[in-house]
Specification:
By secondary structure, the chain is α/β, with parallel strands linked by helices. 21% of the residues lie in helices and 28% in strands. Belongs to the paxM FAD-dependent monooxygenase family.
C-alpha cells in the first residue's frame, strides 16, 4: 500500500483518488477551496470517460445524466433542419455511451465515490482549505501555506490551470496562453419549465431527450448550440434538495445553451 497525496479535488483529482483507492492505496487529497460552492455548467462525458466511470459503479441514468442522441443542424434564419447526425450508436462503436451532465452533479458523485466507507479499499481523505504553495519532488512532499510539510510515497498534481505542479516539473513558469482565434463562448442554463411558459420558446422542449440543436451562421462565424444536461429519473438517487415527484420530473430537464 502506497501513501499517496493528491493536490486538487476537482474532477481529475477525485478520479485519481478513486482509482488509487480501488488499487489498494491510502489517499489524501489537499484542496484549497472549502468545497461548499462548486460551480459549472453542462459537460460532455465521452465514451473513453464513461467506460471507466461505469466500471467503478457510476450509473449515469440514475444520476440524471442525459444519454446523447441525435444532432440536428438548423438554418438559423428559417429554423429548418438542414442535416442530421447522431451519437446514439456510441455504445456499439466504443463499448460506452456519450452522456451530457451538469459538472456539479458529476463532481458530487465522484466526491461520494472517493470518500464513501462502503466502497472498496480505504476511503479517500479530503482536506479542504489547504493551499499548497510548493512541491519538493525529491522527497516527495508538498508544502502548505501555513508552513506544514506533508510527505508521501507519491505526490499527484491535479491543481488546475495555474498549476504549481507543472511549473515544478518543467522548471519554469507555465502561464495559460490566450487563444489566438479570439473565439468567445457564452454559456447558460435554462430550466425546461421556464421555456414551457412562453409559446415562442416551447420549441426548445420538443423531442428534447438527448437532442443537440446546432444553428451555424457561416456569414458571421457564430453558432448557437443547445442540449439537455440534467434529468432526474430516479428520486432516491438525487440529492435531498433535488428530489422530485413523478409529476415534477419532466419539468426539471435543464437546457444548456451557448
Amino acid at each position: 500500500m502506497l501513501d499517496v497525496v493528491i493536490v486538487g479535488a476537482g474532477i481529475a483529482g477525485l478520479s485519481a483518488g478513486i482509482s488509487l483507492r480501488r488499487a489498494g492505496h491510502q489517499v489524501r487529497i489537499y484542496e484549497r477551496s472549502s468545497m461548499n460552492n462548486e460551480t459549472g455548467a453542462a459537460i460532455n462525458l465521452t465514451p473513453n470517460t464513461t467506460r471507466f466511470l461505469t466500471r467503478w459503479g457510476l450509473d449515469p441514468e440514475a444520476l440524471g445524466f442525459v444519454k446523447a442522441g441525435p444532432i440536428h443542424l438548423h438554418d438559423p434564419a428559417t429554423m429548418e433542419i438542414t442535416a442530421t447526425e447522431s451519437h446514439a450508436d456510441s455504445g456499439e462503436l466504443f463499448d460506452a455511451d456519450l452522456w451530457y451532465a451538469h459538472r456539479v452533479d458529476l463532481h458530487d458523485i465522484l466526491r461520494k465515490m472517493a470518500t464513501d466507507s462502503a466502497g472498496p479499499g480505504v476511503p479517500v481523505t479530503i482536506l479542504a482549505n489547504s493551499s499548497v504553495v510548493r512541491y519538493s519532488p525529491d522527497l516527495p512532499a508538498i508544502h502548505l501555506q501555513d508552513g506544514e510539510e506533508v510527505r508521501a510515497d507519491l505526490v499527484v498534481g491535479a491543481d488546475g490551470i495555474h498549476s504549481i505542479a507543472c511549473e515544478t516539473v518543467l522548471g519554469r513558469t507555465n502561464p495559460p496562453l490566450p487563444p489566438n482565434h479570439y473565439n468567445s463562448c457564452y454559456r447558460f442554463l435554462i430550466p425546461a419549465e421556464v421555456l414551457e411558459e412562453d409559446p415562442e420558446t416551447k420549441f426548445w422542449n420538443e423531442n428534447v431527450d438527448g437532442l443537440v440543436r446546432l444553428f451555424p451562421d457561416d456569414k458571421t462565424n457564430r453558432n448557437l448550440i443547445s442540449y439537455p444536461c440534467r434529468k432526474y429519473v430516479s428520486e432516491n438517487q438525487a440529492r435531498k434538495d433535488m428530489q422530485l415527484t413523478k409529476q415534477q420530473q419532466n419539468s426539471q430537464l435543464h437546457r444548456h445553451i451557448f
